[in-house]
Specification:
Number of strands: 0
GO molecular function: antiporter activity; xenobiotic transmembrane transporter activity
InterPro entries: MATE_fam, MdtK-like, Membrane_Transporter-Flippase
Main location: membrane
Largest sheet: none
Mean pLDDT: 86
Protein name: MATE family efflux transporter
Strand content: under 5%
Keywords: Cell membrane, Membrane, Transmembrane, Transmembrane helix, Transport
Low-confidence stretches: none
Length: 441
């Protein structure tokens, strides 16, 4: 990432990462499609009701892993390989501890959380069963996210893609087998997801062992260092909190949607899952920016940082406008993946959401770019502050419209949040680029 034309490097790195993110989205997407087509609207609504919670727990782990991997990328760019291996070893301690604590805590609070979210009584049993399995499998989720983040930090975005393709195919197959043949309902979808993620994690580990000798850890790498732990947490926690703060906002929105009943939950779920596929490109550009910026900052090439962010900005805007047109013209047909054409109310709810948010896709894309660019340079506080602005905006809209408007009022919480998140991110990015402020690895 430190040599060559930035645009070429970014595109080549981003494409396999994007495909990988899309396949990762297919885990939950496949669950919803199979449940909606083979079980019905209530099953689609039940799995849809887990989306914000899934984002909360997996987002925290993904944020931690991404934060830890920034130090790996910086050390790799600075050619400090022994220090890089030490950070990897300390990250293993942290990811293991967080996954155990989260599993125990969320299993204990499963149903109380769902009741706080206004989950319909007729769906709460299915939702709690689904999430119970997901919580039990958080260790494999943590393992995959961390191993994939380390590979990407070293510039390998293709291998995680291949492993995700394999596990996504297995997930779809298991969904069909467990639901259609074994009649396990939505709980079967959760088992399929955890098993598939476990396979992708195992494949990542085997690949690292065979192909990346610079990541082979020795006993001395695991020597516990409070200073290193603090440095990792200094990046990991803000990134994890950033994901979690955003997820809390989506949980609040989900709670407001739940009041409208299963039909609107199903429509909102279908639209959100399709939008997640669209946003996977933004996520990939952002993650690419973090690696590009991290390696070049580590090498002291701040002018390349500026060039990389600038060309990524133009690509994000292009994708935004293409997707705006697609959603407005073809959104209702996309929803038919999840439900029968006779479910007109479900389709109407999904289309209503698309019309409320699609115009704001350029702002959504910019969040991922500037947030990840700042994180790649080692700044964690301001990106987290962007998440706080996002949460405040979402909560404010929900409080303002709750019980006073129809479903579309709730949908407007997302555009408000995306715009608000940029308020601290963009000015701070241009400030540090003008001042050329850097941090040491």
């Amino acid at each position: 990432m430190t040599v060559g034309k930035p645009v070429n490097l970014i595109v080549r790195f981003m494409i396999p990462m994007c495909l990988g993110n899309i396949f990762q989205q297919l885990y939950n997407l496949a669950d919803s499609i199979v449940a909606g087509q083979f079980i019905g609207v209530d099953a689609l609504a039940a799995i849809g009701g887990t989306s914000s919670l899934m984002f909360f727990v997996t987002g925290w782990l993904n944020g931690l892993a991404s934060g830890f991997a920034i130090l790996v990328a910086q050390c790799f760019g600075a050619k400090k390989l022994e220090r890089m291996r030490h950070f990897v070893a300390m990250s293993v301690y942290l990811m293991t501890a967080f996954s155990i604590i989260m599993t125990v805590g969320f299993e204990a609070a499963n149903r109380p959380i769902l009741r706080l979210m206004n989950s319909p009584e007729n769906l709460i049993g299915d939702i709690s069963a689904y999430m119970g399995v997901i919580y039990a499998g958080l260790f494999v989720t943590a393992a995959y996210n961390f191993l994939a983040a380390v590979l990407r930090a070293l510039g390998d975005s293709k291998s995680p893609l291949y492993f995700l393709m394999i596990s996504a195919a297995i997930n779809v197959l298991l969904d069909i087998v467990l639901i259609v043949n074994f009649h396990m309902g939505v709980e079967g979808c959760a088992y399929a997801t955890v098993i598939a993620q476990g396979i992708s994690a195992a494949l990542c580990l085997l690949y690292i062992v065979k192909k990346f000798p610079i990541l082979h850890l020795r006993k001395e790498n695991f020597h516990f260092s409070i200073q290193s732990i603090k440095k990792l947490l200094g990046l990991g926690i803000p990134m994890g909190l950033q994901f979690s703060i955003t997820a809390i906002g989506t949980i609040i929105v989900q709670g407001a949607v739940n009041v409208y009943g299963a039909v609107y939950i199903a429509g909102f779920s279908a639209a959100s899952k399709l939008q997640n596929i669209i946003a996977a490109v933004f996520v990939s550009f952002g993650a690419t920016a973090a690696t590009f910026v991290g390696q070049n900052r580590g090498a002291g090439k701040m002018e390349r940082v500026k060039q990389g962010v600038r060309c990524t900005q133009w690509m994000i805007l292009g994708w935004s406008f293409v997707m705006m047109v697609c959603v407005y013209l073809f959104g209702k047909y996309m929803v038919l993946l999840f439900t029968d054409g006779s479910e007109t109310k479900v389709i109407y709810a999904a289309v209503t959401y698309f019309k409320a948010v699609a115009w704001c896709y350029p702002f959504l894309g910019c969040i991922f770019l500037y947030r990840n660019a700042l994180q790649g340079m080692g700044y964690g506080l301001i990106p987290m502050l962007g998440g706080v602005f996002e949460l405040v905006a979402r909560t404010g809209i929900i409080l303002l419209v709750s019980g006073k408007t129809g479903f579309i009022g709730v949908c407007l919480a997302d555009p408000a949040a995306w715009i608000a998140a940029l308020i601290p991110l963009v000015p701070f990015y241009f400030y540090i680029m003008k001042k050329k402020i850097t941090v040491t690895v």
